[in-house]
Write a structure and sequence with these properties.
This protein has 393 residues and is α+β, with helices and mostly antiparallel strands. The protein is built from ten helices and 19 strands.
Amino acid sequence: MNGRGYIYSVVAAALVVVLLFSWSAAGQAQVFDVAARAAILIDAETGQVLFEKNADQPYEPASLVKIMTLLVAMDAVKAGRVSLTDPVRTSQRAAAVGGSQVYLAVGETHPLEKMLKAVAIASGNDASMAVAEFIAGTEDAFVQLMNERARQIGMKQSRFTNADGLPPEPGEEPSLASARDIALASRTLILEHPKVLEWTSTAMETFRENPLFILYNTNGLVGKYEGLDGLKTGHTTAAGWCLAATAVRGNVRLISVIMGAESRAAREEQTRALLDYGFNRFAPVLAGEGEVGAAKVVTGIPEQVPVRVERPVWAHVPRGQNVELVTEIVTRPDLVAPIAQGEQVGEYVVYLGGQEAFRVPVYAAVDVERASVFVRAWRAVRDFVLDLVGRGA
């Protein structure tokens, strides 16, 4: 390394993966596409993008907005601010919300989990409003939380103006989101709050007995596509037909997003095609597991700190291609000792064919003490000299 300052990169492994598959000229000529306005397909664990189309163009997302509603609500549960057993009372405003609904009456009360099921399974707009008001006091305050969370997780092309995704009233701005941002929100929701998948994989459930109301899943692929257990549908005239879906097979979970399809059948057909493309076109290759190398910490004892990934890291490599897979550890620019075992120290970067495919966090495998002032001074001089020698070479 050239020791140019605060970023220290340590090559953890250089793996050359030669996939011994035949690669026909006919296969090379095939170009995959979907007819939707925008689409993306990613690996849920790593975020590796397997397909994208207009993925950074913001569009009205319709009820895909509710992915953020579920995320903010489940964040509050995880933080202990609310409980899934807490009673949620329906306000007059929530009861008056139109569109897809579970027909809540003013004063009707259900546990938070039941309200969230109404959002996740049946896309209830009235339940979304009731949840928003319960969590934050008002829908406006809840929407502020949605936008703050979106910025926190890196959603760059999104803004939210309500908790349900309904079209704006005259003079109001619509919610906007890109397919990439919806995939990122979906990935965050699944990884941090997997319980949601219990709801989104439910085809039918009774919401109340009197008057009887049954939640029917708006996602027509539930129970009809192998491994599919979510996630959220959406439709308005402006947004078209939208579907954020997720399915798992073996070690691989994929997330697909379709925005602006022409019909309900089209969004399901294109979602099938996207997921099939991911599962069939790519071969998962283990790119790292457990300890994956070391990170340099010039202020630490030891100086070379073994690092590990939280879970096995799988890279998706196109079948039938010879692809070089290389990995690298990039440390945090502000990394200084002391460091506690388990603290995130940087990222494990995976390159396929010379291009960055994705990066995942790496964590210190041991405690790191702070080196003495004499050791730190000696290392500074050493690195300065090595840098001069490197430049002279």
